[in-house]
Amino acid sequence: MTQTSPQPSPMTSPRPLRVLAAMSGGVDSAVAAARAAEAGHDVTGVHLALSANPQSFRTGARGCCTIEDSRDARRAADVIGIPFYVWDLAERFREDVVEDFIAEYEAGRTPNPCLRCNEKIKFAALLDKALALGFDAVCTGHYATVVLNEDGTRELHRASDMAKDQSYVLGVLDERQLAHAMFPLGDTLTTKGEIRAEAERRGLAVAKKPDSHDICFIADGDTQGFLANRLGKAEGDIVDESGTKIGSHEGAFGFTIGQRKGLRIGHPAADGKPRYVLDISPVNNTVTVGPVEALDVTALGAIKPRWCGTAPDGPGTYTAQLRAHGGETEVTAELVDGVLHVTFAEPVRGVAPGQAIVLYDGTRVVGSATIATTERAAATV
Question: Fewer CB atoms inside 10 Å of the end CB: C or N, the chain?
Fold first, then answer.
């Protein structure tokens, strides 16, 4: 693991900074803004209006982009005693996150919109605007840690509390963005209950507000319905590994690699065991299913790498995380002609093109890339 100095970061800067605190309307971002202000920084709160329908309320919604969330953020800023603004980034969000999400599913891939939002919105559009306005840093309620090395370089590390670590969705940040990132919640061993208790002590009304979850722009959580509404229904075949039709579907975009439920296959497999989605082909609108063993992935190729610091030189041994709430697995990886080639020490399942793979060296985030191809024990997809 890379050696680092003790915990210095923008949060513990020797001088007060002008900080723009992104306030979603939830408890984490409110406490993060309060901690930044308490540390002596000159903090301004901002809520990002990302919803295409800003008049929507939380009733039935599970995201963080409603008008109620904006009002909760404003009330929190008032209690903290900081200026507050709402910035309209709905069009940028639609183009960079929502339309990308739809296009990826249409192409048979499985995207991560939260990771894309961090890359394109919170630490690109928001940070660029903040720097242009003279702010030194952007503060969010993510659970991750920025470490400043003795040579002046910065690294992104996992949060002190692994149970709440969110470094996976921040693996797209480069060193320049890390230099202006502040995560006040990342270096404390506190449970979510303690964060809520702290919010209550501070008089923040969001202390008991439920966490946002799922995809923020799909209010009811029905991803398949959302995609069908955007892409239209398109009947196609469900086939087994031999190519024999065993069922039909209303759109290949409604499936993900490793999916077991909702296949609506007319008859069971010959061995009576469950079948899983092995492949999604948008070209002929076909979904291939088979036994769980056929999901074993031994290696992959990933594109569009982004490094949290200097790019690795030559092959290396790392741990990898393949989903936001997934565990780590040992890998060897090497960047060759812009493609990250990764080999797993043990086969893994549920790996789909479009997902992000994030590499770690100990707790340090090395970088991330988008999975393009996978190699299985029996075939290449």
Answer: N
Q: Are 177 and 135 in contact (CB under 8 A)?
A: no
> What residue ranges of the chain have pLDDT lower than 70?
1-14, 52-65, 212-214, 378-381
Examine the residue annotation and report whether 139 is marked as an active-site residue of this protein. Answer: no
DSSP assignment string, 202-232: TT-GGGGPPPP-S-TT-TTS-HHHHHHHHH-
- pLDDT at 380 (0 to 100): 45
> Considering only CA atoms, which of 356, 361, 354, 345 is closest in space to residue 321?
356
Furthest CA-CA distance within the chain: 69
Instruction: Report pLDDT digits (tens) over 90-118.
Output: 899 999 999 999 999 998 898 989 889 98
Contacts of residue 229, defined as CB under 8 A and 6 or more positions apart, other chains included, come to none
| pLDDT tens-digit readout, 253-302 | 888 899 998 887 877 787 888 899 999 998 899 999 999 999 999 999 99
Exactly one of 64, 117, 139, 308 is catalytic; which is it?
117
Q: What is the 3-state secondary structure (H, E, C) of 105-148?
A: HHCCCCCCHHHHHHHHHHHHHHHHHHHHCCCCEEECCCCEEEEE
Whether 117 is catalytic is yes
Residue written as token pair 């997902």: 355
> Which residue carries 């990250």 as its tokens?
340
Answer yes or no: pTM beyond 0.85. Answer: yes
Catalytic residue among 114, 139, 216, 308: 216
Q: Residue 219 has what pLDDT? A: 74
Partners of 357 in beta bridges: 369
Read off the pLDDT of residues 123-132 as tens digits, 9 standing for 90 and up: 889 999 999 9
The Cβ of residue 18 has, within 10 Å, a number of other Cβ atoms equal to 14
**Tally of CB atoms within 10 A around 312:** 18
Report strand pairing: 18-22 vs 42-49: parallel
Complete DSSP assignment for 68-92: HHHHHHHHHHHHHT--EEEEE-HHH
Please answer whether residues 291 and 302 qualify as being in contact, where contact means their C-beta atoms are separated by less than 8 angstroms.
Answer: no
User: Residues 88, 94, 97, CA angle at the centre, nearest 5°?
Assistant: 115
Note the Cα 255 to chain centre separation in Å: 20
Task: Report the C-alpha gap between 23 and 180 in whole angstroms.
Answer: 17
